[in-house]
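Quick one before lunch.
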Amino acid sequence: MKHVADPTHPRYRSLLMRAKIEEAVKAGLLADSALIAHGRGEAFDYLLGERTSESAMQATKEAAARLMAAEHPIISFNGNTVALAAEELLKCAAVMGADVEINIFYRTEERMRLLISSVSKTKESLKHEAPDGFSADEWSRMVESVRILGGEPDGLIPGLEGPRANCHSEGILSADVLLVPLEDGDRCEALVAMGAEVIVIDLNPISRSARMASVTVVDELTRFALNLYEEMKKPGKPDDDWNNQAILDAAVNSVTFTEQ
Ligand code: ATP
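Model of the adenosine-5'-triphosphate complex:
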């Protein structure tokens, strides 16, 4: 995707992402409130210097370790995740052997249909783009094995009311490690209560999701997805003494109001 702004503009990347969200709203993939959620993220990213901090990188390494060690990892996609990072996260899903489950706050059948179709198209084209280190056949098989769940939920997340509780018994309900970018606080709490390890990506270090998660990566989603892919090539072991509060404290301390 291109943007009218000059690519040398210091905020070009940010403008491009904003345009992706705008376009997805226009195409009916996202509710209008998606723009507000994105704007909140932009504001935090601005204050965090629009870069991956050391503590965010540490949390990304822990996320890679846990996802690669998981028996049944699942990546949950909400609408903004589809608009911003579907390709990069599908790549990660292929490498870690995860399925993807689409799960949105304002669930309508039409929006779900559009999101599933968009992710399926991205998956289809990704199959033909083997990255370094994989043969074309091997990569195609790995991508093909990523299932796109969400269309026919047959289970409920315990403790949640309404359509956002819908989920798949072979997906979110049976995951041991869940990657939930841009999750809402309520759902995050319910997922943790189910007993899964929950990895959250959220630029707001004091959101309820950030505070509830087992591992919180306080970073912008598209930067995280690229870093995760690299870290998954050389995963460490999960840290049994992981101190998530220390990561949140470090993120709060890196917020700055000085000129960047
Ligand atoms: P909670 O319910 O967890 O307290 P909230 O009500 O703020 O959170 P939403 O408005 O549903 O949650 O979600 C938006 C969250 O996602 C915000 O915390 C925002 O900072 C974060 N966010 C938005 N865009 C991005 C992005 N591209 N990368 C990372 N985080 C993002």
